[in-house]
Design brief:
The chain has 368 residues and is an all-alpha fold. Helices cover 50% and strands 2% of the residues. Strands 1-2 form a two-stranded antiparallel sheet.
Length: 368
């Protein structure tokens, strides 16, 4: 350091300098007069004496920050779709930088997932399963990020970029262990020291992922990493169909989801219709099934209290539905008897031209 100061003419500012003991560094000797610290923050990352402490320290801070922000935004009047958008753009925005650098332990990804689900549903009784929410919209989900899978994907991409950069320590280590281009399949990670856990993850995951082609952009490669890891995580589990699919196997569900998300209505109305389609509205019938009410019948008319009953049969619902069906019949130029009430629960129809399709979707969305 003194030689550098003499050669460059620069001087080390002791008052603005911190020292950290890496590994088994002896702290009793201090030639430069720089004070030792347990933690040093460099470019947003809190470094500690070991990799393990650095990893857990940073993810503890990130998890606590997400929980705090979720509590502060909890009372905001947002529909589930808007809350998912808020999660993607605000709550989880800060963790992706850390995920590029440090592996995310399972303990912290589970805590983060629990916090964002608590923020989405706000204590409602019936919910769409997390695995369903994480599916793409055209498959009945809402494209909610899988935190663990995305953290792994971002870390893999960063290591892959470093493996292609000359004079990088990561590239030298990967070259020494023979996992630069494409790790062996099945992966052989036993020879990699446990102290470099991030390289073990790289060897295990990249063995099943093809390296990017010349025509593949960085963004497309990241998306492919995420989708591949997402599918790998679910390869060993039994995939169950959604509850509504099991109840209505003959419905063209691909068309239902396409119609829902392509309709020209506001996001909060689409979100409300989404909950109706998934049948998570707390009707008496559903509450009675889990013993939270003493009857499954409607208190006004005595018939089973279902979503369709509330929309088309009970109180003023009958008049509103008949008037609405008459208006749709005029638009479609058909007899109103050909417009079934189950369009409210499963909008699987397809009419031409597209303007009529959107008009019918707009009417049904506002009725729901």
């Amino acid at each position: 350091m003194r030689c550098f100061e003499k050669a460059s003419g620069a001087h080390l500012n002791i008052t603005k300098t911190k020292a950290i003991a890496i590994g088994g560094w002896e702290t009793s000797r201090n030639d430069l007069g720089v004070e030792y610290h347990q933690t040093v923050k460099i470019l947003g990352i809190h470094f500690r004496s070991t990799m393990e402490q650095t990893m857990h320290g940073n993810w503890t801070l990130q998890t606590a920050r997400i929980k705090t922000n979720a509590k502060q935004a909890y009372i905001r009047e947002l529909c589930p779709a808007q809350r998912i958008r808020y999660i993607h753009s605000i709550l989880l925005a800060t963790i992706w930088f850390t995920a590029h650098i440090l592996p995310a332990p399972v303990k912290y990804t589970k805590q983060i997932t629990t916090a964002i689900l608590w923020f989405i549903w706000k204590g409602v009784i019936f919910r769409v399963p997390t695995a369903t929410l994480q599916k793409p919209k055209h498959q009945g989900g809402w494209a909610l990020h899988d935190v663990a899978c995305k953290c792994r994907a971002l870390l893999l991409k960063r290591i892959w970029i470093q493996s292609k950069t000359e004079q990088m320590i990561t590239a030298a280590l990967l070259s020494e262990w023979g996992i630069v281009d494409h790790p062996a399949n099945p992966p052989i990670a036993g020879r990699i020291p446990k102290t470099t856990a991030y390289l073990i993850y790289y060897a295990l995951d990249m063995a099943y992922i093809e390296t990017p082609t010349l025509m593949e952009t960085s963004k497309l490669f990241t998306r492919r990493l995420y989708s591949t890891i997402y599918e790998m995580d679910r390869a060993g589990s039994v995939t169950q169909e959604m509850r509504i699919v099991r109840r209505n196997p003959t419905v063209n569900w691909n068309r239902v989801w396409r119609n829902l998300h392509s309709s020209w209505v506001s996001e909060d109305r689409i979100s409300t219709w989404y909950t109706v389609i998934h049948d998570i509205v707390p009707t008496k019938e559903r509450l009675f099934a889990i013993h939270l009410t003493d009857t499954a019948s409607c208190r006004q008319c005595g018939t089973p209290d279902t979503i369709l009953h509330r929309l088309t049969e009970c109180a003023q619902g009958t008049e509103i539905w008949e008037w609405t069906r008459h208006q749709m019949a005029m638009i479609l130029r058909v007899d109103q008897r050909h417009i079934p009430s189950d369009w409210l629960l499963t909008p699987y129809f397809q009419v031409r031209p597209s303007q009529r399709q959107q008009a019918i979707m707009w009417i049904l969305a506002h009725l729901v």
